[in-house]
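Subject: Sanity check before I submit

Could someone independently write out the structure tokens for this chain? I want to compare against mine line by line before I put it in a report. The sequence has 307 residues.
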Amino acid sequence: MTAPLHPDCQTLLAMMAAAGRPRFETLDAQAARAQYAGARGAVQPPPPDVAEARHLPGMRFYRPLGSDAADILPCLVFAHGGGWVFGDLDTHDHLARSLANAAGCAVLAVDYRLAPEHRFPAAVEDVAAGICYAVAQAATLGIDPTRLAVGGDSAGGNLAAVAALMARDGDLPTLRFQLLLYPVTDMVQAQGSYTRFAAGLPLTGPAMGWFRAHYTPEPETWVDWRASPLRAASLRGVAPAFVLTVGHDPLCDEGRDYAARLELEGVQVAHLHASDLLHGCLTMAAVVRPAMDLIAMAGAALRRGLA
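---
Independent answer below. Compare away.
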């Protein structure tokens, strides 16, 4: 049985109904991107101040408030959510800044290529390139390449989990930590939460099918661990993890399964489950106020993981 939705989430759903916006799965990719970007001002607080927000080719680099340009900082390479179809550096600017300040670390946010123009594994390749860039440019950026984490929300959490597996296998530089915020971990989409949450929420089971059709349209790719990290032969030896799941979310079951499997295979993992919140809440904190507490807890876990 699922806990009742938090009152702030109910307010959000009422706002969405009043706005009368069509569901993402009824739109083409360009229209969905415009709709998602256009809603940002209504659901996100003003971005917090940081010491630096620097634009780089295909990336944005943040240094946390209170840091000095001479400080050598740990760094989070961050991949935004949006179903691999929409989302960008601006839609996740508030979250990236908030994590930098909460963790006291630099954040390198990657503006990876989007589907359907650039299908799987383009996004995987771009996040991997971002990690390699962080290490290669560590001296210029003022970061410690031995204290590197990867993280992301939703589709970005999927890309982060895949990058952690690649680092475990020696295909990427060593990672100290992974931050997985309501991640996608299984493209087969057979978990019960896909049918439990088939309507009435910002993200539903049918919407996830729409995202999958854009990013991984070929069924044979659904079992590739680079698309479905839950289906990797082994998770043993990956970086310690913080996994956030929320109760009203078609991704709930696969996120919980991933956290459980990490623990079973000897990986240090902290799993936080917010039973009364919904998918996407971290980028809706102006309305869903408990999201700021979740960001603070994620940031604290990241700070400890990069210590």
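---
OP: Matches mine. For the report I'm noting this point. The mean pLDDT is 97.
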